[in-house]
Amino acid sequence: MTEQELERRQQEFDAKVANEERIEPKDWMPDDYRKTVLRQMSQHAHSEVIGMQPEGNWITRAPTLSRKAILLAKIQDEGGHGLYLYSAAETLGTSREDMVEALHLGKAKYASIFNYPALTWADMGAIGWLVDGAAIVNQVSLQRTSYGPYSRAMIRICKEESFHQRQGYQIMLVLARGSTEQKAMAQDALDRWWWPSLMMFGPHDAESAHTAKSMQWKLKRESNDQLRQKFVDQAVPQAEFIGLKMPDPDLHWNEDRGHYDFGKIDWDEFWRVVSGDGALQPPTSGTPYQSPGGRRLGTRRHACL
Ligand code: FAQ
Fold it and tell me: Is 96 close to ligand 1, i.e. is its CB under 6 Å away?
């Protein structure tokens, strides 16, 4: 391709992005754009599939038949999301086998939150409420992403994810209004899943390798910190409504900003967990489990591994 032709195609691509048109598989796109969309979509697809595992662990231990049926349907949906996303990513010219191989070789990532163990039934509530809740905040924004197949996959995924979030919140609500022990179990799950949920949005904008370019391409429509703030503002009143306490002494409403301020995220823990630190050492009776990041994880009394 001549330099002139390349420039013409680049201008055409830039104009489409500026005019809010979607980039389609048959369209010319810069190599870096293709690489970045593929990285994000394959990471997203892997997260959906790996994300089935902590919940899959609880299918045989769901407390009632109805809870089991709901959990099964929810986990199947996550598998389906992975499949739409692999199909959408294949339109960029890579096969599903190559994406899965990259995952197995450690070249592709998945959301680090799925390295944390699901220790009690309340974790099914916390995962739905917080993990799906954080995923939706991001995915609603991605419905307007510039890559057509990704944006269309997000529309269907958001509808299903919204049911997932509600079923999780409903589990938490029932536990929080139950016996003292059930309420303690719900609080323990919130304590363990809150900070990892905030980490799902990725590093702060100033530390985020890809955000600036992805925003310019309208691949990302809101930055990691903007999305994280939306999630916090939404989750805090939800916790208050069911009478649970967020595990963050620095969390408070900031009248001037019109948002909640919150405490510092432990990024050392994030990077340790991203790089595979997830092994759980079973405690001796009554001593706490340690999270992959070293935080206290509840006791053997609550765990049903
Ligand atoms: N975990 O430059 P940035 C779900 C990596 S779906 C691990 O800010 P970017 C459904 C990042 O890859 C949840 N690694 O990156 C469900 C990069 O490393 P690289 C998944 C992370 O892409 C619920 C480096 O850090 N959702 O949960 C994470 O611009 C319940 C620098 O980061 C999506 O994937 C992380 N959390 O922004 C299923 C949404 N964050 O690749 C079952 C789509 C960052 O250069 C049960 N993805 N890294 O080696 C995105 O929106 C973006 O990729 C972000 C990260 C926002 C996650």
Answer: no
pLDDT digits (tens, 9 = 90+) for 245-298: 999 999 999 999 999 999 999 999 999 999 887 655 555 555 555 555 555 554
Whether residue 42 has its Cβ less than 6 Å from ligand 1: no
Per-residue burial over 219-240, b if 16 or more Cβ lie within 10 Å, else e, is bbbbbbbbbbbbbbeebbebbe
Inter-residue contact 51 to 81 (CB < 8 Å): no
Is the minimum distance from the CB of 197 to ligand 1 under 6 angstroms? Answer: no
96-104 helix and 31-50 helix, angle to the nearest 10 degrees: 70
pLDDT tens, residue by residue, 12-41:
999 999 999 999 999 999 999 999 999 999
Per DSSP, the residues of 233-268 read HHHHHHHHHTT---S-TT-EEETTTTEEE-----HH
Does residue 132 line the site of ligand 1, with CB under 6 A?
Answer: yes
- DSSP character for 278? -
Q: Which atom of ligand 1 is nearest to the CA of 127?
A: 30
- What is the whole-number distance in angstroms between the Cα of residue 97 and the centre of ligand 1? 21
Q: Is the CB of 210 under 6 A from ligand 1?
A: yes
The pTM (predicted TM-score) of the whole model is: 0.93
